[in-house]
Design brief:
It catalyses: S-ubiquitinyl-[E2 ubiquitin-conjugating enzyme]-L-cysteine + [acceptor protein]-L-lysine = [E2 ubiquitin-conjugating enzyme]-L-cysteine + N(6)-ubiquitinyl-[acceptor protein]-L-lysine. This protein has about 625 residues and is α+β, with helices and mostly antiparallel strands. The chain has 4 domains: about 240 residues, no CATH class; about 140 residues; about 100 residues, Immunoglobulins (Immunoglobulin-like, Sandwich); about 80 residues, no CATH class. About 25% of the residues are buried.
Amino acid sequence: MQKEGSREVSFGPELGGFHGGRLFTGLFVAPIGSTRSPQKQTMSQSEQKENAEQPTLNSEHEQNGVLVNPKAVCNVCRRLYRDPKILPCLHTFCSDCIGQLEPFSVSSRSRRDAPGNGRGEALEEDRPTVTVLCPDCDTEVDIPPSGPGGLTTDHLALDDVFLETLVTDGPLGCDLCGEGDAKSRCDVCCVNLCEFCCQAHRRQKRTASHPIQCLEELKSRGRLCRPVLCSLHPGQELRLFCQPCDLPVCLECAAMLHRDHHCCPTRDVIDRHGDRIRELVTVRLRPCMERLKDSLHKVEVSQEALQARVDATANEVRVFARAYASAVEAHCLSLLHRLEELRVQRRNQLHLQRAQLQQALLDVGGGVEFAERLLSCGSDAEILSAKGVTLRRLTSLAKNSYDPNPATVATDDSSGISFMAREPAGDVEGYPVVGVINSKTVDLSKCTVEGEGLQRGVEGQQGYFALVCRDSAGEQVARGGEHVLVSIVHKEKKNCTLETTVVDNSDGSYRVSYTPEESGTYSVWVCVKAQHVKGSPFLLNVKRKLRRHSGTFHCCSFCSSGGAKEARCGCAGTMPGGFKGCGHGHKGHPGKPHWSCCGSTAEQSECLPRSVLAAVSPRGHLRTVEL
């Protein structure tokens, strides 16, 4: 501790260490080159209090309405950097912020064989390696076993923080006396000095050679170029480079810790190492970056084009939807109008039929009432007297009175009007629409039954026929859903009925299938809505199943068997010489090709039964070709 006038100035060993820095209006800045372990990075209570009061910057990096250099701001805490450290992915964050990151994984790694750090520090014991995710790029990065303090300090970030403090925080206080306004800064001690402390700093033997810069000049330059000091030897600048350890060292480190190593001035090796970095940047990474920019530009252009196309298509869809909705609404009104017309038409028809029936009922009722009263109340003379006019009226009523078939009265039970939602309805305002009002009703007298299976069938084989429902105009009803009943009963065996299957084709036609088990004549009833269609019941003739031929259709057994004597034939032909079959020109040969099993001369025919063969064959048994 030394006295300078009335002021007390302290120049301890910590000037070049971690605590050589001070708080600039609430900001703690570590001196350049500070890489001490976390155990040595403890702040005083006043520094911790001031550091906690440092304001958080917003997303635009503003403080009190003034823009702050984003390179001086930590992206985790949104404050100016405090002891900035560089992660292996080259992103910088505060040491405390890195220590608070959630571990991504923890793995054990032995350090017994690891090289030393070249600063004389003892090798640490085996500690687990913690891996975290970089908050900026999500890259997995390893934190040294010693913690965030073992990471490389970002001196450029420190320069940006100090420069930002000079620019934005206004007048600075002296870091030594704390009373006067700071006018200068010692690059070695990294302290801001007022004029009095600056003069004292120059007079001290130990600090007289330290370079001192004017703060106003630093502000005007906008860029700081400060020496990087050794963390082990305060005030010593890192001027040498130890090649075996690949570390910058100071003169004392080179003389003590690296005395057996090849150390050379940093200016002699900076070109080689700088050129290596420059080569990687210029030759490989810059072209790669340009390609990435071009690719990114293409992707962004494609995204913009995609969004523009999607927006245009969305507008087209909306325009189409509005127009289509208008067309559907117009079609809906048209359908409702058509439905109203059908209602009026059917109502008028029913009203007319009702009036006719009422009038006919009055006429017939009046005639019946008069005749019954005449017969029950009139005398013989009265009856005979009114007989002529009564008979004429009653005869006229019986012959000419309106007496429709009940099947034709009120045939429309309202089921004939239906909405077919999937039926094409043409175009409305240029748009295809679906949905029609179906007003056709089934007229039983116009329905038709079609198909060969309605008249003929074969025992054991499935037969088919079709029912087509038609309206009064004879046109096919374009909908299904009618209650169709088909019954097939044997004419002679009333307990023999066939099971039928009716398939609705949903177009007014119905497919009917059956499989007869016995031959004979059947009665086919086809009913719609419990009423027979025109022509029902129909007659169905089922023939017995055809007997298939089991032999060969040949000219003779001699030829078909290749002259075998044991070959037999179902015809009446014989051959001398011990042959059991027939031959050309011999007795009994039919004179044409025939079946060897039954002797039938028709190729497309049914095989004759044994009873027929016994009647026509002198052998009295079935003969077949045996080879």
